[in-house]
Amino acid sequence: MRILYLELRRVLRTPVTLKLLITAFIISGIIAYLPISYVHYSYMDSNHKAITVSGIKAIQEKKRLVLQGKLTESKIHTAVNEYQKVTKKYGSIYRGDFPQKVYEEKVFLFINILDRINEVYGSEMKTGRGSYTDKISAHYAAEHFYKRGSYIDKISADYAAKNFYKKCTEHLKKQTSDKNKNIKQQAFNMYKKVNMPFEFIYGYGSSDAADYLLFLIFILIIICTIITAPIFSSEYQTGSDNILRCTKHGRVRFAITKIISAILISSISFSICISTYIVIEDSIFGWDSLETSLQMVSSAVSLPSLSVGEAQMLTVAAGMLSLFAVVSFTLFISSYCKSTTVSLVISIIFCFLPSLISKSVDNNIMNWIRLILPAGGVGVGNGFDYELQNLTFLKFGSHFIWSPYVIIGAAAIAIPLFMTLTVLAYCKHEAA
């Protein structure tokens, strides 16, 4: 314990480490503010003047107005019926000249329900974040923009209400129509466990808070990587490791102590920053909003039977696991390299590599490489939360594995593997 205490004090007293930890906490507060500040709500006051509010006030207004609770047949029937009445009289709700007052009173309270109905009954393309825009041309988007919602115009309220959940299953069939039969079977087995009717409460899931959580996790992992990279290599540069090895516990035990200190500093810092973010977001958006079904805020055919709150906790847990994997990998690189600069550059490159792969190539082999890397569960524009909502299955022989399972499994293997390799590399360096 004495050695561990001294090592922790040595690392924490480093000026760069202190600055990075303070920066991490400040960034957490800034990122927590962003999704709240981006919430806007416009309405007409008693003098018919357009008023726009943002932040906490906008969130409170939306929570007051939006229809919440279980997505029952009666709510679906009412939403479709009201929508059709309004569009018949005023035209598309997405036109710039649509009456603001009418939108507030007749449309806004149903908007989340209408989005799910439109997806289930009308989408002919795969769902998931970004998939619509990936598959349509700019010309098509411009030509059909104001026709959005036309699927709801073509169905009766009775039909929409009675068949919604049946159509969800049919929608999933359409999304998996070009996939292997084993993938289809796994997808349907998972989807059978989804709780129906769906639950919706305006709040965390209705904002960009989940995306910013992923971004914060990635930033924290980068910061912890910078802190961890010099743990071994800095002592190689100064030669102080030769002195330490002359002590009674200056070899294997000392290497293990360094690993433990790096893990402790990283995990405690991560926990404090993520807890700060979550408490701020959930307190302002409402803790009750965490009960919302994942299917109501992403895609109606999201496979896991999870609430928004459960998805949030899983994302944080996967983020912590990815943190341990990245820190373990960085320690291995540090124990192998004699230069802190080389150690840092290699570690940072591997942090960004999964994001670069996801943006450039999409096939089974590259998906395997992307997801089994230490930072496979985090990134810019990709990450565990995105994989939870997608229909990505990776082929392994005759089997197909859902991508979130690959992320968790790979990280669980990487942690002890790279820790062991770190100790071995340190001992090998001793022999050299």
From TrEMBL:
Chief location category: membrane
GO cellular component, one term: membrane
Assigned keywords, A-Z: Membrane, Transmembrane, Transmembrane helix
Domain ABC-2 type transporter transmembrane intervals: 157-381
Localization of this protein: Membrane
Transmembrane segments: 20-41, 212-233, 254-280, 311-333, 340-357, 402-427
Pfam family, one: ABC2_membrane_3
GO molecular function: ABC-type transporter activity
Membrane topology term: Multi-pass membrane protein
PANTHER family found in the cross-reference section: INTEGRAL MEMBRANE PROTEIN-RELATED, MEMBRANE PROTEIN
Protein name: ABC-2 family transporter protein
Source organism of the structure: Clostridium oryzae
High-level lineage: Bacteria, Bacillati, Bacillota, Clostridia, Eubacteriales
